[in-house]
Amino acid sequence: MVMAAPVSVVIPCYKCSSTIERALSSVAGQTLRPAEVILVDDGSGDETSGVLETLKDKYGDWIHIVELPLNVGAASARNAGWNVATQPYIAFLDSDDSWNTEKLHVQYAYMRNNPEVSLCGHRCVLSQDGEALPVLQKRFDSTKINATSLLFRNAFFTPSVMLRRDIRHRFQKGKRFAEDFLLWQQIAFSGLNVVRIESPLAYIHKSPYGAGGLSAQLWRMETGELCNFLTLYRAGSINAPLYVAAILFSMIKFIRRLLLARLSGLSKRWS
């Protein structure tokens, strides 16, 4: 009998028929496989549903499919998977990203050996199709993430995060931009321990601020981040000076990103 980690993997799926097999294959190829994978079809309305059923037939009852009748966004889709998860740990993966084969072995071992940690993330690598993947180092250093630092920089990509299923926090229902960032902030500001493993254990196959998909919508992402600060301020998690400082720093970052995006567009136009 193959040993499985007591982890539920939650993958929101929206019109992802061309990428979900790569993501799921990276989970199936783990040296320590999770106990279950929950694929949440977020009202795709296309061939995605059929692809998910085909993958379930391929991998068996280890795969569970949750069908949502309407598109509710990644935050609510992840919550739907979280709500039906049976394992004490939840790991998130996006349908267009993938994991290093040692990801669950390393991260679950860390969580098991450090039960005081409620959320553990790790480094990620931007990997374009056809590029050689980096060799994983054998030393796995970790850093405790301070809550205040999360006001100024998101320490985690969502496909890097594993957390305890029983924490009370969830993704904000219906929120579509910076929803993951808000959850990490709420967990950290509630006093729970948040840690990052300083090794790249996941592969991001799209640029975080590229020309396509949600990441291209820089202003919507910025307003999502600004709304996070307001949520934290109203909840009493941060005081007025921190609230103002976070807004100012975020706006400076936004202007920089906007300039870089425009310069990149000009470069492509003239190349």
Q: What does the largest sheet look like?
A: 9 strands, mixed
Cα(first) to Cα(last) distance is 56 Å
Low-confidence stretches: 210-215
Q: Helical percent range?
A: 25-40%
What count of structural domains? 2
Q: What's the total count of β strands? A: 9
Sequence-ordered SSE layout with sheet pairings:
Layout: E1 4-13, H1 20-28, E2 33-42, H2 48-59, E3 63-68, H3 74-84, E4 89-92, E5 97-99, H4 103-113, E6 117-126, E7 142-144, E8 162-164, H5 179-189, E9 193-204, H6 218-234, H7 240-270
Parallel strand pairs: 1-2, 1-4, 2-3, 6-9
Antiparallel strand pairs: 4-8, 5-9, 6-8, 7-9
Helix pairs in contact: 1-2, 5-6, 6-7
Keywords summarizing the entry:
271 residues, Spore Coat Polysaccharide Biosynthesis Protein SpsA, Chain A, 2 domains
Structure described in brief:
The chain folds into two domains: 4-206, Spore Coat Polysaccharide Biosynthesis Protein SpsA, Chain A, CATH 3.90.550.10; 215-270. It is built from seven helices and nine strands.
Description:
The structure is a single chain. By secondary structure, this protein is of the alpha/beta class. The chain has 2 domains: about 5-205, Spore Coat Polysaccharide Biosynthesis Protein SpsA, Chain A; about 215-270. It is about 40% helix and about 25% strand. The protein contains 7 helices and 9 strands. The chain has helices spanning about 20-30, 50-60, 75-85, 105-115, 180-190, 220-235, 240-270; strands at about 5-15, 35-40, 65-70, 90, 95-100, 115-125, 140-145, 160-165, 195-205. Strands 1, 2, 3, 4, 5, 6, 7, 8 and 9 form a 9-stranded mixed sheet that branches. Helix 5 (about 180-190) packs parallel to helix 6 (about 220-235). The relative contact order is 0.14.
